[in-house]
């Protein structure tokens, strides 16, 4: 349907609606026919394809081939067990992926978009999904258009349609009919679903919803949550590939070595190759890491930090700077007028009452009005006067970019313009002598220095034919100042302290006056409060100049959203990982540029929420700090999981390699190695993901993003732990007679060694056994399951038969346990020593930096 070719009246008639909107009943009955206003996402893969995906990666294919070969040679038990391992691994992989997807899907629902519609004349808020054809939608700057609309009323409406047309310049919209056939980009009387309102306001009637909208036709999910992998998981995949290549090279070397030295035993080599591949590639690790990350996303949502993708979880843990708005984020946004400086109170009050966006009828009680807290403060101040509203004829809405608001009213024979806004802007436009201006500035500064947000008031009488434009605002009569208090949130004060303890610097970027900003900064405890950069200063600086000073400044005052972008970029130039808050439509570029763009769930515009990586459901600064803590906890757990996985993999591999080099029979059969792998995959691999935050999580500096996945220290740890698991176990087993017994001892030693080492890994450097030992229930459940499974293979006849094990005596078990405990204590002592060394290093570095 070419709605743009119809007049507004014809459109309303065709769609059976009217300018006052639909009634509730009408909307409900239409919704039954219409269905939800939602774009069906194309399912990328169906369940079977998803399951199949986990059986087709290289390692699985190798195992499947191995199993088939075993079947062909008549070794059914071995073949069967290899198949079992393949199936368990594949299903576990699928389950992990589904879990990760589920937690992200849950978030999508939480981020549902809202729309304002008219219901029998009254504006109401609705989830955008509930819109039906015929609904009358109100648009304002910062909104994302919720459906395809034929516009029926516009005021300076410009819309950015890049998502549809690729054109990033905003388009000015009209309501007039367009006669000739036009593509979406030229349909100027339409507003399309998913496009962004840059300026102005408008009213439009919904003509298409869901899949029938322009954006629906190209099937582009609006609030798509990115499930992309994170840098760490990517590195892990790469590492796996390298390990795989390394093992192939090793197998080839062993093939040559053993056949030259001892003569080739194909059967042995085949078994050994499978054992090596299975044992040494931590194939499940990327999936485990992904799952830990997705659980983190869910945890953060519970804490009111809604994360849009897993990479953000990782980045949060390394954040070094938080740039925050002041109003509403650090302060309560409960504004009250503290002082008014004027000799013409009557006219000031009249401006307060009329030059505003909230009150439209005299009968409205101020307690019932919601909206911009600055204007509410003014309305409350004049509420008792019972002044009548002057009929309004024009308006320039407030914008942080020019920092004032003006309205035009009829006034007897002529007209009057009321202006309120930042005093220095108004004083520039006022008719004053130098001395008068200086006096007002002094008064304003006095208010601001007490932490008050200062507004100036002015008016101008104009002819009855005059129109309200920015250019008309000259020669104003300046009449007074009001100081508004907006106290800091107690939680923000605590959060700023916490962030600073965690080595994260907090910077405040505000549109307010620098004296106000400074006073509030002192109250909330920012560090560098003596040096302040104003928007105008930043304008004078080159990007390089700004980058040089930006680190030492914590207060940026009288800024516009454009300055935020420059500040982020400057900080990033200095290798900072930057979190930046924003709520307005113009904040989107800065939010996108920041490493973590943070939008406000309550007062933020839809556009800012779309641009952000994280949305604060409670608009609270404290939530950012909580999210950082969670991000650090998760990253620690990822690191712990890696530290746990790799040595145990290496230990198993070493056993095979040493045996081959010494021409000994394989100490463990491939089946036994598969078993060890499978039980630990099922039980031990997740447990560390549930570890609570360590004590020092928020007292140590942010993680250095430049270090790779494996530090020199990690290599050291992997090597010695794997040797410590393997060597005692090997020699112990050799002291006994009988293959089955030797193998059982070895198997049990490795499994127990892994279990114990997992407990070591709970804390990276602190003692593993501490007061919070029992907090991670999951760890004990895992150990419990592992225990039962091991009992099964060591003592149950069926288990013994399948895996080739035999029962152990009590003494044998105690010796194995003793070995494991030895490992535990050695690792604990090593951690302690390493911690001391790292501390000393840190100290010398900080000394060096201070000098
Ligand atoms: P922050 O960035 O910390 O949230 P802010 O967004 O409140 O600060 P702005 O909204 O840009 O900062 O306000 C800047 C200045 O504009 C204020 O100091 C005040 O003088 C003036 N101002 C704020 N709100 C209004 C309004 N509704 N009408 C007129 N002037 C306003």
Please report which band the strand proportion falls in: under 5%, 5-15%, 15-25%, 25-35%, 35-45% or over 45%. 5-15%
Strand order of the largest sheet: 8-21-20-19-9-16-18-17
Name the overall outline.
Answer: elongated
Number of alpha- plus pi-helical segments: 29
Could you describe the largest sheet, including whether it forms a barrel? 8 strands, mixed
- Structural class computed from helices and strand pairing: alpha/beta
The pLDDT mean sits at 87
Number of strands: 21
Write down the Rg. 34 Å
Q: What's the quick description here?
A:
The protein is of the alpha/beta class. Belongs to the cation transport ATPase (P-type) (TC 3.A.3) family. Type IIA subfamily.
Please describe what this structure looks like.
With 851 residues, the protein is of the alpha/beta class. It is built from 29 helices and 21 strands. The strands form three sheets. Strands 8-21-20-19-9-16-18-17 form an eight-stranded mixed sheet, sandwiched between helices. Helix 5 packs parallel to helix 24 (670-687). It binds adenosine-5'-triphosphate.
List keywords for this structure.
P_typ_ATPase_HD_dom, eight-stranded mixed sheet, binds adenosine-5'-triphosphate, seven-stranded antiparallel sheet, 851 residues, 21 strands, ATPase_P-type_domA, 29 helices, membrane, alpha/beta
